[in-house]
Amino acid sequence: MDKQKISIIIRGLLFVAVVSGGVYWYFEHSEKYPSTDDGYVNANLVNVAPKVSGYVEEILVKNNQFVHKGDVLFRIAPTDYSVQLDQQQQALQYAVQLANNAKAQISTAVANVASAKVNYANAAEQVKRYTEMNRQNAASTQNLQSYQTQFAQAKAQLIQAENTLEQYKIQVEAANAQVGQAKAQVANARNNVGYTDVVSSVNGFVSNMYLTKGQYVAVGQQVFGLVDNDSWWIDANFKETDIERVKEGQPVDVNLDLYKHAHYKGVVQSISYASGTTFSLLPPQNATGNWVKVTQRFTIRIKVENNPKFPLRVGASADVQIDTTK
Known about the structure:
Elements: H1 3-32, E1 35-48, E2 54-59, E3 66-67, E4 72-76, H2 79-135, H3 141-195, E5 197-199, E6 204-207, E7 216-217, E8 224-239, E9 251-256, E10 264-275, E11 297-304, E12 317-322
Antiparallel strand pairs: 1-8, 1-12, 2-4, 2-7, 3-6, 4-5, 6-8, 8-11, 9-10, 9-12, 10-11
């Protein structure tokens, strides 16, 4: 065998070794570092809707602008709600005045009851005294009857005074209830005035905004959205054959089609308990005779931090690789 044939054999063996090593490395790497390009960026989407209706008086933000939690997004004309607040405050003052008058009447009624009790006790004592004197013929029957009449009148006056006191107590309770109701109406009116300033509930980006000044908006009407900048994640769909090795907390490398030179670090947050086809409009019917087995995919949620230089955007495609060795 000449040297040329030996050289060809050696090169062939080296080629086979390299290819075999490459194949082995590929499958070994795929086993430890499962990956998918079926991933998409997501975030909490907050629909902005006013709590009161009215005409838009001022717009303080624009589409795609970053806003902080608590920033005023737009204002609804507050005039009507300010008038309602004034009316409710006046109604509260009137209710308080009625309650104070009712309390003053109770003080008078309590004094009347105390006086009636004294008169009743005196009349009862006189009746008892003259009854004994009449039994001993020391007092006339006419005088006794006169004191008995006074006693009956004192008793009736005491009952009337006590009934009047109870009526005033009921009036005070009703007046206090009216005060409480008036206070609640004032608080509601004050809240409505505050609701005319529509504020951001999250730190995020204004999205899909077509609001115009002078536009009428209704309670609960969705006028535009906010993309929450504090809650970014990626929903990556992995083959079911990769799920066994994936655990929560494992590190993840993320690349986006959106940026060629950006790289993100993430961590496995959760693994879906249902495949992607489970909640589809027409789930597959595997009981039919022409069934073909298809590898299912399960969604893995990956928590990822935003990068100010390369900001994440909802819906962007992502390539994901999980390190299952950690």
